[in-house]
Fold ABC transporter domain-containing protein.
Amino acid sequence: MSFGEQLALIIRFYTDLETSIGAVSRLKAFSENVKPESWEGETLVPPAEWPLHGAIEINGVSAAYGDSEDKDTTKNLALDNLHLTVAPGEKVAICGRSGSGKSSLLLLLLRLVDPLASTTTPPTPDEEEGKTIQPKLAPMAIDGLPLHAMSRPHLRRRIIALPQEPVFLPSGTPVQTNLDPHHSATAADCRAALEAVSLWPFIASRGGLDAPLAPDTLSQGQKQLFSLARAIVRRRVRARERAAEFGSDYCGDLRDGGVLLLDEVSSSVDQETDEEMQRVIRAEFAAYTIVMVSHRLGMVMGFDRVVIMDAGRIVESGRPGELVEREGSRFRELWMVGNGGKG
Ligand SMILES: Nc1ncnc2c1ncn2[C@@H]1O[C@H](COP(=O)(O)OP(=O)(O)OP(=O)(O)O)[C@@H](O)[C@H]1O
């Protein structure tokens, strides 16, 4: 082996070692700093069809990040006394400047951020005497079922959520497993979902559903399309399960309903792909209640309602078409900034 080859080998070993040390240190920090969720009192298992209608209610909820002991309820609130009601099947866009609490609102519905023990309801006599045994959670409900009492794994499996940064199983996991980690869909479902988001030709050219997937070989936009395909698979499987259980007449058009949460799901795709994604979302999730965080105001115009957030509060809400015309509205302000001052 030449000197150059030996040197290259040493450098490779060294960088591998550094990567491994970094991974070990991250794992150590994770196990030391991240406390497991406490699921005490969260025993409610929703019926199989929940959430069939997708009616969302948030009544005066505040939330902050960090340990509950450290939480100062008067400042640093990510969400501040939030009230929001979303009707079954309604499509609501959440807008606002960076850090205004948009993502936190979605995380709240998934119980990934906990509401503060009530910051809004008056204390009971027991609480006033310091005798409170159980912390009270401010009320949030979907289709009438309280989220604070619900089993979190069930809640998270029933709500379909697409994060800003798509998550993949370790490199080498087959495409189909990545699309359908619970193995509840057929190969035909998976292929149809990839076709719906126009990713099938790309996946087919790399060996199809059984081929190992290396997420690093997907562009950021392709990752977002893949993530949307995953949501489509889940919706179709759920619709089939409901039809099998309740018959196709069950609850008319709403038998296919549910809740879809979208957080900047098209931030990395071009304008044309963005429009295509919107078209697919509208067609696939027509009966679903959709709550979507987006900076793309053009996309928001097609929604039933836009809600503007600022400092963890809802400061405006209305039809996007009306708000954009209304002199002095927050949405119009965002729209003007987005359009370089042109109304
Ligand atoms: N993991 C976290 N730890 C501590 N504070 C956080 C965390 N995530 C968000 N925050 C804080 O909560 C507040 C709301 O953040 P959030 O991410 O909900 O805003 P956003 O409107 O979604 O912002 P963006 O448009 O930039 O994504 C901000 O003040 C932010 O600094």
Summary: The mean pLDDT is 85. The domain at 35-159+258-268+283-343 is CATH 3.40.50.300 (Rossmann fold). The pocket of adenosine-5'-triphosphate is lined by residues 65, 78, 96, 98-104 (CB under 6 Å). The CA atoms of residues 27 and 90 lie 41 Å apart.
